[in-house]
Amino acid sequence: MLNRYMIALLGLACAFFLAAEPAFAQKGANAGGIGAFGAPNVPPGSLIDAPANTAITRDNTSGSRLHRQREEERRQTERRRRAQNGEAVAPDAATPSQVLSAARSVADSASLDCRMTEASHPGVNADEAPIYEAVCADGPGYLLIGSTPPQAYNCLELAGSAATARMQDPTAEVGYQCELPANQNSVAVIGDWARQAGVTCRVDQAVAIGKSVESNLIYEVGCADAPGYWIEKVGDDWRLQTCEQIATTGETCRFTAARN
């Protein structure tokens, strides 16, 4: 059961096909009525309660599908008209190299540290801003929006949002997620960070679970043959807590069973 400080970085906002622009917000308040981020009455290292906003929603209603179908028909009609008039018409689909180049341009504009090796172009948002999914050679991938200004969403955070939401409601709409096979790498990426933090067990589960009061991302790792850990990047170092330590603060590790 999630405790009151568990965060789900869920989404309302930037839909890929028919939604509003992404935004960050917070849900409710912590004990004492103080808001989530930076709440002075929350112990350091505790998670904050701010679900519902950083994921990017995928619109799956029948009305939206009909809208997209009609919009595509309109575009095709416009393409034919322009072609008949001798006007230049953009190709239906960019080549992989063109997609990669465009995604790199968005990443550079967003000052994103990503040595990009692969990219896909799943669509555009409601403002016709292009959406890209990027694979980075080192670290997590990103969902990129070529808006002004450009926006970037860490694939690990989006996956963590979805996992937390589904713990609360298995049928929850979790928004758009990173789908490229190379971005299904949370155990490898977070496991490597865990080893940097001093974890020596064989990590077989890993997920982003929220943010600390200092707004640092916190990750949980599960071990194949031992209790797991929480790790938090603080400056250039990692803060490491065992699940036994976490249990004494009233928090819960999802990958490690509580001991009586």
Labels describing this entry:
20% strand; disordered N terminus; alpha+beta; single chain; 260 residues; 5 helices; 8 strands; four-stranded antiparallel β-sheet
Question: What can you see in these coordinates?
Answer:
This protein is an alpha+beta fold. Among the domains are: 87-156; 185-260. Helices cover 27% and strands 20% of the residues. A four-stranded antiparallel β-sheet has the order 1-2-3-4. A four-stranded antiparallel β-sheet has the order 5-6-7-8. The longest helix has 23 residues, at 62-84. The protein is elongated and about 70 Å long. 36% of the residues are buried.
Mean pLDDT: 76
Radius of gyration: 21 Å
User: What is the overall silhouette?
Assistant: elongated
- Major beta sheet, strand line-up: 1-2-3-4
Q: Give the helix level as a range of percent.
A: 25-40%
Low-pLDDT runs of 5+ residues are 1-54
How many individual β-strands? 8
Cα end-to-end separation:
16 Å
> What is the helix tally?
5
In quaternary terms, these chains amount to single chain
Q: Classify the beta-strand content into a percent band.
A: 15-25%
Q: Could you give the order of the helices and strands?
A: HHEEEEHHEEEEH
- Structural class per helix/strand content? alpha+beta
The major pleated sheet works out as: 4 strands, antiparallel
Helix and strand arrangement:
Elements: H1 62-84, H2 96-109, E1 116-124, E2 130-136, E3 142-145, E4 151-154, H3 155-168, H4 186-197, E5 203-211, E6 217-223, E7 229-234, E8 237-242, H5 243-248
